[in-house]
Task: inverse folding
């Protein structure tokens, strides 16, 4: 049985995508600013099928329509940015188009990287995907590159893999994690949980201090070398699927 294609009024659809109020969309349509399949769409009360190909069929003020609901954004998060909608200072949402802050459903980060952690961060308006990625039942692996204040002492790998490490202030042991030594003061750590400041606290429990932390991988999705800090791009369906491939 084929899936039914949803429809929406043009003004409601564009409003949910952050382009403006219904009144603003009505004025834009009458001014010839909304084009569908090469023709001006002046009646914004018209219902249209909301299909994935709309961004290549519709233009707003001469620009292709933004992706409709279900977008997934890959950001190379720079240092100093916060994964929040409300905190003071630089936010990860600042690098996205302004109108995307007004989208409904809202765009949110899939998990968080703290202010002093850089690297692979996903953002989406797809709530189901967000919960699938962060669900403990999925065991989606996250790989971090940690630069340490002091040389590794050789016991960390066994400690992290034991499944017996209990972080300070907690009573539940961590799931086993994998450690790959890169140099005496650099390592790759693979974890499947997302506890508060987990990687930093794990190395602290081993008597060390993380000076720099960078996330390189989420599941089977790797941060591209050509995506500079602060840059982002949309993920394809295949790339989204790769998140769940270890």
Result:
């Amino acid at each position: 049985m084929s899936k039914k294609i949803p429809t929406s009024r043009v003004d409601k659809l564009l409003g949910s995508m952050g382009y403006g109020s219904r009144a603003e969309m009505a004025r834009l349509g009458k001014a010839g600013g909304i084009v569908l399949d090469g023709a001006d769409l002046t009646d914004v009360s018209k219902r249209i099928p909301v299909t994935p190909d709309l961004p290549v069929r519709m233009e707003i003020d001469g620009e292709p329509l933004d992706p409709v609901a279900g977008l997934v954004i890959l950001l190379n998060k720079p240092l100093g940015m916060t994964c929040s909608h409300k905190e003071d200072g630089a936010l990860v949402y600042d690098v996205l188009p302004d109108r995307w802050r007004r989208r409904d459903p809202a765009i949110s980060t899939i998990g968080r990287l703290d202010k002093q952690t850089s690297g692979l961060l996903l953002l989406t308006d797809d709530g189901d995907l967000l919960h699938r990625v962060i669900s403990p039942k999925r065991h989606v692996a996250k790989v971090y590159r940690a630069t340490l204040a002091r040389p590794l002492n050789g016991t960390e790998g066994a400690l992290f893999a034991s499944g017996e490490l209990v972080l300070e202030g907690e009573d539940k042991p961590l799931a086993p994690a994998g450690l790959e030594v890169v140099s005496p003061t650099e390592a790759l750590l693979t974890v499947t949980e997302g506890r508060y400041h987990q990687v930093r606290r794990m190395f602290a429990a081993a008597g060390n201090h993380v000076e720099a932390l960078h996330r390189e991988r989420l599941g089977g999705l790797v941060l591209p070398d050509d995506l500079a800090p602060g840059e982002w791009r949309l993920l394809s369906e295949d790339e989204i699927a790769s998140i769940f491939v270890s």
